[in-house]
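This section describes the prediction task in plain terms. A model, or a person checking by hand, is given the sequence of a single protein chain and must write out its three-dimensional structure as a string of tokens. No templates, partner chains or ligands are provided. The sample shown here is typical of the held-out split.
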Amino acid sequence: MKLLKKLIAVLAFAPVVALAAEATFPLDQAPDRTRDLPSLQNGAKLFVNYCLNCHSASAMRYNRLKDIGLTEAQIKNNLLFTTEKVGDLMKVAMPAKDAKDWFGAVPPDLSVIARAKSSSEGSGADWLYTYLRTFYKDDTRPTGWNNLVFPNVGMPHVMWEVQGIRSVKMVDEKDPHDESKTVHKFAGFEQVKPGTMNAIEFDNAMADLVSYISWMGEPAQNTRKRLGVIVLLFLGVFLLLTWRLNASYWKDVK
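The expected answer:
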């Protein structure tokens, strides 16, 4: 009986925990450029230069980038920096043990990260797009950086030279649930040091990168969607023909 009561209490408390875990920084909608080949090519370049140093994409081969308009020579000359071959998987040379020692956790594989981060708050692309644009300087963290979407993240801001250095502005407001308490609320960023890109250019670059990561999770997604529309149109025409055939068949019976 006691065990049953404990189980009921845990189940009753579980939704509260789930809601608390889902309460995150609001996500911005990511531009969908998965059909834009120049954007995907730029995203692939950013991915290889900034992400592939620590994160692997072990479900993707370099030669699959031919699907976004790159030739084998372009892939070899611009996206392969060591001894990889065009047919190799996108893996990193950094041992998992070293990664855990340096960052506190092994950097996740990014093959399907856009799918994995999808939630009721927004798509995985929305999460990535907002995450990459909300790093700020925080000297209390081991890496010197923090993030609004993923607080206390172990990943440093690898694109700080591009975006520049920003600090976060917070204001104290009364807790809407308890007026005797105050809460810290995000009030914007302050640019401490400019980067090589302005804000609009950086947002566009992140949109390209996120679109590439989304495409990488399912390279055939646009073909699948296009075939889905064709199948639905075919079924619609077939349904119309079936309906008229049925009416013609039962006409004399009535």
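For orientation: The domain at 26-246 is CATH 1.10.760.10 (Cytochrome Bc1 Complex; Chain D, domain 2).
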